[in-house]
Amino acid sequence: xxxxxxxxxxxxxxxxxxxxxxxxxxxxxxxxxxxxxxxxxxxxxxxxxxxxxxxxxxxxxxxxxxxxxxxxxxxxxxxxxxxxxxxxxxxxxxxxxxxxxxxxxxxxxxxxxxxxxxxxxxxxxxxxxxxxxxxxxxxxxxxxxxxxxxxxxxxxxxxxxxxxxxxxxxxxxxxxxxxxxxxxxxxxxxxxxxxxxxxxxxxxxxxxxxxxxxxxxxxxxxxxxxxxxxxxxxxxxxxxxxxxxxxxxxxxxxxxxxxxxxxxxxxxxxxxxxxxxxxxxxxxxxxxxxxxxxxxxxxxxxxxxxxxxxxxxxxxxxxxxxxxxxxxxxxxxxxxxxxxxxxxxxxxxxxxxxxxxx
Length: 358
Prior knowledge:
Blueprint: H1 6-16, E1 21-27, E2 36-43, E3 50-55, H2 79-89, E4 97-101, E5 106-110, H3 117-123, H4 128-148, H5 163-182, H6 188-206, E6 211-213, E7 222-225, E8 228-231, E9 238-240, H7 242-251, H8 261-274, H9 281-308, H10 318-331, H11 338-344, H12 351-355
Antiparallel strand pairs: 1-2, 2-3, 3-5, 4-5, 6-9, 7-8
């Protein structure tokens, strides 16, 4: 209860459940987000035994992803609240919002527990494929019901993965994952070689089907209550290719330690069968391209978070992420010099080397 926000949180609890008291607060582990989270235990007033408190960073109506903060006019509502309303309407499994005080920067959320999907699959790998199928079942709600939802007023329908956003993220990788982190200054010829490949990826991915996408649908953003998934960190939802969320789920960070290529193929077949289709060569290529784009982007974000947000912990994922990029580069052919230029970079052999200042 030594958190400076404890009085404000206690007041919000009492407004939500008259007669309830805040008994304790504990900090929850964060991720890449600029927000922080606390768990409050409650007593009396008909309140649940515990809640999760989301503490917003900064002021105004922030988005967690800087590249998504470009609109014709500023958002009039916190994107988390907007997208939560949409996901609730389509029956997606998300935590309830008990109370929101955006002016104070506090939200009281249903406590979904501490067990991440990654915790489950890494501790019981024999159950991994069945658990990822359950996650895909939840994803299908977004991709089918969400995409067809008749009310299009949500901010999620006002933004999409287009060529501009793909290129922004790939250039972000060059800035932070290459030039800033590795201390490599790219000449005009090398930059042109990268850009030719980037243009090809962006053009191919931007030309396909769009669905309602979670955007950060990975094993650290899915809580497990028993065998039932609960989706969190969904405020950056937008329209994107279906392959994007699938790539996020099956290739993010150290996920390939559990999701082998054979399991990956079966899970892709499971998703497309649920949509009445099969994984032909075109869908496999689009999946590999989406995974390649996203994994390259993650390298940039890992270093951005370490350098600008002063959170070096994600650097531990870097060796696995690099291995995934190399696997995907071996699978897909692209014009330009992405494969050659990537292989030529002085990548660190371990996370500790990456963490040292360049």
